[in-house]
Amino acid sequence: MKILLSGASGRVGREIQRLVESSDRLRISGTASSEHFFRDADRGDVLIDFSRPELSARSLAFASAHGVPLVLGTTGIEPALQADIDAASASIPICQAANFSLGVNVLLDLVDRAAAALPDSFEAEISELHHRWKVDAPSGTALALGRAVAQARGSDPDAVAGVRGAGVREKGGIGYQVARGGDVVGEHVVTFFGEGERVELAHRCSDRAVFARGALHAARRLFGREPGRYSFRDLLA
Ligand SMILES: NC(=O)c1ccc[n+]([C@@H]2O[C@H](COP(=O)([O-])OP(=O)(O)OC[C@H]3O[C@@H](n4cnc5c(N)ncnc54)[C@H](OP(=O)(O)O)[C@@H]3O)[C@@H](O)[C@H]2O)c1
Q1: Protein residues with CB under 6 Å of any ligand 1 atom
Q2: Could you say which of 70, 91, 196, 209 has the lowest number of CB atoms within 10 Å?
Q3: pTM here?
């Protein structure tokens, strides 16, 4: 399988290259970063993007123009670009996930079940911790966890979830706490606070190779699919 890699020089991009080099069934057939973009002649069976939204937009256009399936891991995507991604899925298969680790995808299921099983009086808070270089906040994974809680409770995530600030806690709100420092790959904790008890569900990642492995798994499973939107969980099944 030939892979076009967008964000090849980045932390996740380098992990993907390392895994591809150790496989005799995969090869990189073109790369893009802030310094250079794919050439028109670059061809691939799938395009993997872990970069910045500016580059993701160009990679999306390239994948659409050449009919190449897209595995999209970049976070911090604004609504206008998200609308372009959704529209492009009418012509190419796209797997977009805020987190390509198996563990976080199990965590999403557990959070969904906990939010549905616990009464709304259990107040949900999501804390996340990442390395000092991370650009977007809260993390895409924290936002996905917040959406999972809101959807399980039948509420609109945009209306109820936000970064925790000063003031008395509002009823039904979902608060995000963000910490940045050191070389932490990524940690997420979802807490449901009840009266006299609390439930905590957590995931801690110590090696970004898990994202690279997940993205390559998604790439293999996306190849040959019909155009459309696929979650990472769809491709794990
Ligand atoms: N979905 C997941 O499982 C998952 C997991 C981890 C991270 N992520 C996300 O993946 C993305 C990349 O993370 P990372 O830690 O690998 O980032 P990174 O180390 O900062 O690498 C970013 C990549 O994007 C390129 N780039 C940066 N700014 C650019 C610009 N303005 N125009 C074009 N290219 C630009 C960089 O090229 P240069 O080196 O030339 O600057 C580099 O190749 C982030 O959005 C992160 O949140 C997702």
Answers
A1: 7-13, 33-35, 50-52, 54-55, 73-76, 97-100, 136, 208, 211
A2: 196
A3: 0.95
